[in-house]
Amino acid sequence: MGEALACKDAIYAFSKENKPVKSVASGSTIKIETYDCFQNQIRSNDTEINSINWDKINPATGPIYVETAQPGDILSVKIEKMELKNEGVMATGPDLGVMGHRLEKFEAKMIPIRDGKAIFNERLQIPLNPMIGVIGVAPAGEPVSCGTPGEHGGNMDTKLITEGATLYFPVFAEGALFALGDLHAAMGDGEVGVSGIEIAGEVTVTLTVIKGQSLKHPVLISEEGVATIVSAATLDEAAKTSVEEMIDLLLPKTDLPLSQLTMLMSAVGQTQISQIVDPLVTARFFVPKYVLDAYDIKLFD
Amino acid sequence: MGEALACKDAIYAFSKENKPVKSVASGSTIKIETYDCFQNQIRSNDTEINSINWDKINPATGPIYVETAQPGDILSVKIEKMELKNEGVMATGPDLGVMGHRLEKFEAKMIPIRDGKAIFNERLQIPLNPMIGVIGVAPAGEPVSCGTPGEHGGNMDTKLITEGATLYFPVFAEGALFALGDLHAAMGDGEVGVSGIEIAGEVTVTLTVIKGQSLKHPVLISEEGVATIVSAATLDEAAKTSVEEMIDLLLPKTDLPLSQLTMLMSAVGQTQISQIVDPLVTARFFVPKYVLDAYDIKLFD
Predict the structure, then answer these.
(1) What is the ipTM metric for this complex?
(2) What is the dihedral of CA A49, A55, A58, A63, to 10 degrees?
(3) What domains appear along chain A, each with residue ranges and CATH number?
């Protein structure tokens, strides 16, 4: 597998114009080192907002050129392993997150990680749910800031994006130009204060090109089931589109007419919120594995 | 406990003008029989949309006058037990639910319940998650259809409203005028096709008036944690309001300043979707029990 790709090789926008920092064959497994979302700039609770370079937020390590990937293909990204540093950081403040209208000053808080828990304070230890906030490929059109999610992935801040899961992205540029960053030691759905427990670390992924199939939005498959992940201007739009994406994905794989599949989704499918604080919001529609198993559904080759 | 309140004593709108069908002392336990959300009108897969009386949808059995309840109090409703009939029904069609724009005709589907599973078809059995769709008290102002959710509860279609949970409602009318109906044998978050597995049954609840505290929106407490439940015109508004309601509920119960509590909620709190298909949509913010335990928080007396 060789050495990890270093976090200093970071982009701040996904773009088909970005120069790849590495090229790999389809099927390769690679280890990627990442900064935290503040580019490791916050090292104490006393960090002043003006001391932070806000142009260096949400770095994603890469991009990686995946050989043979062409626009119209799918890039599958199996998350083999996540390794986190032993200290995370949270931050919130005016105009940030759901409570930004009531907060008077920017505040940061260092959070030690010990024995699989995040030590919020002496009373409260938070169980970890390690996840990847920013992960994706170059978008079709203009560059997209790594702080923004979209059809190319990006800042989806989705809890399901964790060890063992496989993401499927539409490819828009030759080589796909994959990158990831913004790890969280823990985060709740919504990321309501604008940050999770932000942390640096390393992620090992296997990157594989899938030919002959295409996608409009990222899809995630795990041991638990499958999720369509959609980012939009409103939660209502993101949630509804994620449902329709799922139905269009499953419809050709079952013998159910649209009306019956819709009823089935109403009984077993879950509309879920990923984040409500990035410039666009992200929702997902989740279908549990026993439903796929009942119809012997294999979504991707 | 006496006989169950009969489902024929049903309302189709929550209103402070409704005449109570029963009066009980605070602290009483009562069994309530309910129609399904179609008032048991759909008995076969061939049911035509025009054969259904659409004025008789979402019946809620009641209202029950709870002695001593006054506007400004809280009514707590402990869901002691749910008993379901052995056949449910789903329906969807044009202009109903997320896929309504692509469906050509109204369709109903009877779904037998056997051995704790809903038999969707010969391939697929769905595990049950029994829950109550419509539950609430008379609203402050004009009558509100039982198909619509709001600050008074109503058609919240929230999966967490199930056996063992306790709901807390703001009281707007003398006696609270409590009613419930619209049971589901199973439903996914979102209720994307417009129905869950709709079913008639019986629910046993304990109704208790809490004096000296008040609420703006319904709150639910279970063995797993606490949720603020908010209905609004958009999911974005419902989700954000549910977060702020939770923070205002917890802030006086901890020693954390607003900024720190916001960070904590960002790490451990979950924005969740209840339903996206009723005239208003419903979201909730969930905080797990270990967080309340760490601060010895008791929300209601």
Answers:
(1) 0.97
(2) -160
(3) 219-294 (3.10.28.20)
